[in-house]
């Protein structure tokens, strides 16, 4: 008879931590409103009507409303040009009533996404997507972090995961997720290996990892047999059918700590977005 692997890992509970963080953010938003008479405002920009993007934006707006953050939605046609999108984002950057800007990604293959992101004023870049924000984060200077990697770090810290001297393997190197996640781990003295689609013998790297961050976009790409016993597993992947980039059952049988999907990294991403929006509003309205 084949033995069925039993889960041994404890959960890194992003839902519970995000709730705590958002409760503090809501208090801060209410205090700002008392002091200035103005509520923080997040502008969301959506190009086209991709159903997943529409859902993500709606989730973020609903979360804003619960935290006392106003949102202003800018819906643009799928066929808008790069110049048109840059103009729309620039207008929000210059509007004093808007404190944070979220440009929902992806924006369509015909658009220069980087140019559109760079139109976000760094002080309003609460999603942490501009080169200015990436540079500040990499140099350890004040600024807004990319929300998903920022949420991952908050989760690891809440569970006292030791990072200094540990080997972190980040699978994925996108500018909004894998790359900044590795930079934040490096800043905390982890030894970081980035893996990507051209990595030779990726599974050998995984077997050496004390911490794995999965940011691949491929369902159940990482399995328990790829992992060292006791590893900490953070699954940032979110694929159709609520499936992560990690095969949860087999990985949980090897790991000491693991994020569920859903309920791990996703809620933390939104919680960090809200926190940074309120922080941006404080800086613009009070200091
Ligand atoms: P992305 O831009 O498509 O990047 C995927 C990365 O994975 C790339 O660096 C790619 O390598 C690498 N990759 C793809 N196939 C691979 C393979 N077979 N072997 C090794 N590496 C491979 O995706 P993303 O925007 O970073 O998102 C990644 C995942 O996170 C998706 O599931 C997405 O839905 C999820 N996500 C979740 C949140 C959240 O809030 N929870 C936020 C953002 C994204 P190359 O660079 O070589 O192409």
UniProtKB/TrEMBL annotation:
It comes from Streptacidiphilus monticola. Homodimer. This is Bifunctional protein FolD. Pathway: One-carbon metabolism; tetrahydrofolate interconversion. Transmembrane segments: none annotated. Catalyzes the oxidation of 5,10-methylenetetrahydrofolate to 5,10-methenyltetrahydrofolate and then the hydrolysis of 5,10-methenyltetrahydrofolate to 10-formyltetrahydrofolate. Signal peptide: none annotated. Keywords: Amino-acid biosynthesis, Histidine biosynthesis, Hydrolase, Methionine biosynthesis, Multifunctional enzyme, NADP, One-carbon metabolism, Oxidoreductase, Purine biosynthesis. Pfam families: THF_DHG_CYH, THF_DHG_CYH_C. Residues 12-127 form the Tetrahydrofolate dehydrogenase/cyclohydrolase catalytic domain.
């Amino acid at each position: 008879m084949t033995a069925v692997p039993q889960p041994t890992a404890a959960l890194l509970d992003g839902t519970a931590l995000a709730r705590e963080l958002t409760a503090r953010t809501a208090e801060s938003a209410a205090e700002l409103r008392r002091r200035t008479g103005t509520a923080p405002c997040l502008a969301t920009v959506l190009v086209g009507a991709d159903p997943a993007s529409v859902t993500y934006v709606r989730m973020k707006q609903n979360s804003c409303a619960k935290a006392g953050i106003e949102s202003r939605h800018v819906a643009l046609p799928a066929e808008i040009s790069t110049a048109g999108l840059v103009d729309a984002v620039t207008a929000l950057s210059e509007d004093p009533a808007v404190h944070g800007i979220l440009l929902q990604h992806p924006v369509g293959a015909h658009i220069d996404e980087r140019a559109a992101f760079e139109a976000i004023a760094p002080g309003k870049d609460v999603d942490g997507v501009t080169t200015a924000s990436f540079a500040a984060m990499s140099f350890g200077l004040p600024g807004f972090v990319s929300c998903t990697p920022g949420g991952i770090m908050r989760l690891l810290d809440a569970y006292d995961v030791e990072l200094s001297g540990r080997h972190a393997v980040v699978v994925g190197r996108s500018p909004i997720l894998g790359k900044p996640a590795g930079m934040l781990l490096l800043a905390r003295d982890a030894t970081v290996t980035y893996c990507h689609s051209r990595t030779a013998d990726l599974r050998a790297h995984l077997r050496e990892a004390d911490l794995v961050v999965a940011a691949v976009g491929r369902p159940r790409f990482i399995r328990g047999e790829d992992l060292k016993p006791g590893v900490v597993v953070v699954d940032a992947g979110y694929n159709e059918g609520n499936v992560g980039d990690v095969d949860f059952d087999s990985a949980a049988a090897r790991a000491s700590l693991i994020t569920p999907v859903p309920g791990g990294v996703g809620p933390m991403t939104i919680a960090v977005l809200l926190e940074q929006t309120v922080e941006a509003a404080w800086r613009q309205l009070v200091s």
